[in-house]
Structure formats: C-alpha cells, structure tokens
C-alpha cells in the first residue's frame, strides 16, 4: 500500500505537469509573439531557404521540427488565426500527433484509486493511549489534589497566641521596682527582660501573627485553585478511554475513509485541470 501511494503521487505529478504545460503557459509563450497578420512570405522563407540550409531540399520546417515529419505542413496563417481565435497552442500546432491527450483524460479508467485504498490495512486494535503509566500519573494527580481543607483549617486554629506579652512586661517592671531596694543589679536585669519582652511583642510576635493571616489567605487561594481538579482528572481518564476504544474498533476504517477523501480531492483538481485544458483545445 505504501508503494502504491508513491506510484500514485508521481503519476499525479506527471499528469498535472503535462496538463499545465499544455494549457495557458504555452498559449502565452508560443502564440502571443506571432501576431503579425501577413506571414506567407515568412513561411516561404522558413520552408525553402531555412529548410534548405538545415536539411537540404524543401519541406515543412515546423513539421520537421515538431513532428519529425517534413510532409506535415503547418500553415503559419492558420496557426495565427487559431491563436487569435483563442485556441491553445495544443490545437493551433496540432500537437495531438505528439501527445495523446485522450489517454490523459481517461486516466481514471486505468487507475482505480478506491479499490487500491481499500487494500490499505492499518491495524489499530492494539493501540494503547491509556497506558498503565499514564493512568498512574493521572491518579496520583487526582489524589494529591484531594486535600481536606476543613481539617487543615482546624489544625491552624489550634495554634493560638493567647498570651499578653504587654501585661507580662508590665508585671516584670513592677517586680523590678519591688526588688530594687534589695538588689539593684537584679532589678536592672528584670528591667532589661521587660524591654526584651516588649521587643518580642512588637517584632517577632507581630510578624508571626501577620504570617498566620497570610497563610490563611494562601490556603483560600490554594483551595480555589485545586477546586475541580479531581473532576477534571476523572473526565480526562474517560475521554482518553473513549478515544482509545474508538481507535481500536473504528480506527482502521477511519484511516481508509480519510485516505479516500484525500485522494478524491486530489483527483478532482486533476479532473478540472484536464477539463480546462481540453476546453481550450476545441
Ligand atoms: C507525415 O505527415 C503526412 C501529412 O500529414 C501524413 O500523411 C504522413 O502519414 C505523416 N508521416 C508520418 C511518418 O507520420
Ligand atoms: C478508458 O480506459 C478503460 C480501461 O482501460 C477502457 O476500457 C476504455 O475503453 C477507455 N475509454 C476511452 C474513451 O479511451
Ligand atoms: C475533613 O476533615 C474533617 C475534620 O477532621 C472531617 O470531619 C471530614 O469528614 C473530612 N472530610 C473528608 C472528605 O475526609
Ligand atoms: C494586654 O493587656 C493590656 C493591659 O494589661 C491591655 O490593654 C491589652 O489590650 C491586652 N492585649 C491583648 C492582645 O489582649
Ligand atoms: C510589689 O510590691 C507590692 C507591695 O509590697 C505588692 O503588692 C506587689 O504584688 C508586688 N508586685 C510584684 C510583681 O511582686
Ligand atoms: C528599657 O527601655 C527604656 C526605653 O526604651 C530605656 O530608657 C531603658 O534604659 C531600658 N532599660 C534597660 C535595662 O535596657
Ligand atoms: C468549587 O467550584 C464549585 C463550582 O465551580 C463551586 O460551586 C464551589 O463553591 C467551589 N468551592 C470552593 C471551595 O471554592
Ligand atoms: C474503558 O472503556 C471500556 C469500554 O467502554 C470499559 O470496559 C473500561 O472499563 C474503561 N476503562 C476505564 C479505565 O475507564
Ligand atoms: C464503529 O463502527 C461500528 C461498526 O463497524 C459502528 O456500529 C459504530 O457506530 C462505530 N462507532 C463510531 C463511534 O463511529
Ligand atoms: C468536466 O467537463 C464535463 C463536461 O463539460 C462536466 O460534465 C464535468 O463535470 C467536468 N468535470 C470537472 C471535474 O470539472
């Protein structure tokens, strides 16, 4: 079947090339320059003097050049009027002697594309999209998104900061004042502890409380982000499985149908080029 595709495509290439050459371009480059109406003298020059100098004797120079037949005379006047009448170079120069166009138009009689394509056999019955590995990865993704946010928030709520460091610092200062008469060095130390306590309250504890608030809002965002992931993974698994089932059971026929569609579209292009070229010949 692969060989067929190659043969088939080179055939199409050849066909479209020939059809293209016979059509407009030749008309443009061969017919258009010859628009001087009076060419009988020119014909005489061609068929006597030039023929004489090239081949000896007399004969039709164009017949000799185009058809290798010096008896086949081409009338320049007829070619000219044909060209002016809009005929293509193919008919004006009577090239039918050189190229059998009816064989081209009948190419579909010798080329049965559909039955060739029917022989293509693509076996997709063992195709596996949903491999065990892919299934495991999708299942892992699903379980990692199954976070119990209720439980998470409950744990977080238990981390409470219910000590009042401001009142602790004030008690430490009272105590430092009480013992200043007994031991002034201990008193100074307790004033320093009170200052440290204030500092912890203003800096570390404040940062911690801010971080807790940030964490709570991040959890909200995370919950919103993973919301639905589990369902999405389930849908993906089902879609992959459906695709796999379809390709395993109907894949071969689908490939064949699509190949036929493609071939028919190509052939339509060729048909219409052949048609257009032939129309220009009549
Ligand atoms: C050459 O052309 C003449 C006139 O058209 C024709 O009768 C003859 O059969 C041709 N010869 C060949 C070999 O084609
Ligand atoms: C077209 O080709 C087929 C198959 O080769 C043949 O039977 C048929 O006669 C041909 N038709 C023409 C008009 O040449
Ligand atoms: C989430 O955790 C809460 C509290 O621990 C529990 O009551 C609830 O059943 C859990 N939900 C799920 C879906 O496991
Ligand atoms: C800590 O105690 C002081 C008084 O001792 C009070 O003014 C302050 O509001 C308390 N702070 C907190 C967070 O309870
Ligand atoms: C300081 O001394 C006063 C009077 O003796 C007493 O009432 C108070 O409880 C003491 N404060 C501390 C923190 O020891
Ligand atoms: C405690 O802080 C106050 C005010 O910042 C300061 O005047 C005092 O010297 C500090 N005491 C100690 C022992 O660091
Ligand atoms: C998750 O999405 C559903 C539907 O989109 C919505 O009804 C639900 O409130 C969302 N839950 C959370 C926690 O965002
Ligand atoms: C895939 O689909 C087939 C048939 O529809 C079913 O028997 C099979 O259990 C499905 N497998 C999974 C993993 O969903
Ligand atoms: C697959 O092909 C069978 C017959 O071969 C047909 O009945 C079925 O509808 C097709 N399934 C799809 C999804 O096209
Ligand atoms: C070719 O021309 C014939 C007659 O003019 C027409 O019936 C046919 O549809 C044309 N085919 C294409 C592919 O244009």
UniProtKB/TrEMBL annotation:
Coiled-coil region list: 205-232
One MF annotation (Gene Ontology) recorded for this entry: cholesterol binding
Bilayer topology annotation: Multi-pass membrane protein
Keywords on record: Coiled coil, Glycoprotein, Membrane, Transmembrane, Transmembrane helix
Transmembrane segments: 6-23
One GO cellular component, as annotated: cell surface
Keyword presence, Hydrolase: no
UniProt subcellular location: Membrane
Alphabetized InterPro entries for the sequence: Prominin
Top-level taxon: Eukaryota
Primary localization: membrane
Family per record: Belongs to the prominin family.
Protein name: Uncharacterized protein
């Amino acid at each position: 079947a692969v060989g067929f595709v190659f043969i088939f495509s080179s055939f199409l290439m050849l066909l479209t090339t020939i059809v293209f050459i016979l059509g407009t371009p030749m008309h443009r480059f061969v017919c258009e320059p010859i628009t001087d109406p009076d060419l009988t003298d020119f014909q005489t020059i061609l068929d006597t003097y030039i023929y004489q100098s090239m081949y000896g004797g007399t004969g039709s120079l164009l017949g000799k050049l185009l058809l290798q037949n010096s008896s086949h005379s081409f009338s320049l006047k007829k070619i000219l009027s044909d060209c002016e009448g809009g005929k293509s170079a193919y008919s004006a120069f009577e090239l039918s002697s050189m190229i059998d166009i009816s064989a081209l138009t009948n190419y579909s009689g010798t080329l049965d594309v559909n039955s060739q394509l029917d022989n293509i056999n693509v076996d997709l019955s063992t195709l596996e999209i949903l491999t065990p590995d892919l299934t495991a990865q999708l299942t892992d993704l699903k379980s990692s998104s199954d976070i119990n946010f209720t439980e998470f928030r409950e744990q977080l709520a238990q981390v409470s900061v219910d000590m009042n460091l401001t009142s602790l610092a004030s008690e430490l200062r009272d105590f430092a004042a009480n013992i200043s008469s007994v031991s002034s060095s201990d008193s100074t130390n307790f004033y320093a502890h009170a200052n440290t306590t204030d500092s912890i309250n203003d800096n570390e504890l404040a940062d911690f409380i801010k971080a807790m608030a940030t964490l709570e809002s991040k959890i909200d965002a995370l919950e919103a982000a993973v919301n639905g992931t589990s369902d999405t993974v389930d849908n993906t698994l089902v879609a992959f499985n459906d695709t796999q089932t379809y390709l395993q059971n109907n894949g071969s026929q689908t490939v064949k149908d699509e190949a036929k569609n493609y071939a028919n579209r190509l052939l339509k292009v060729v048909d219409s080029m052949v048609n257009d070229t032939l129309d220009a010949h009549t």
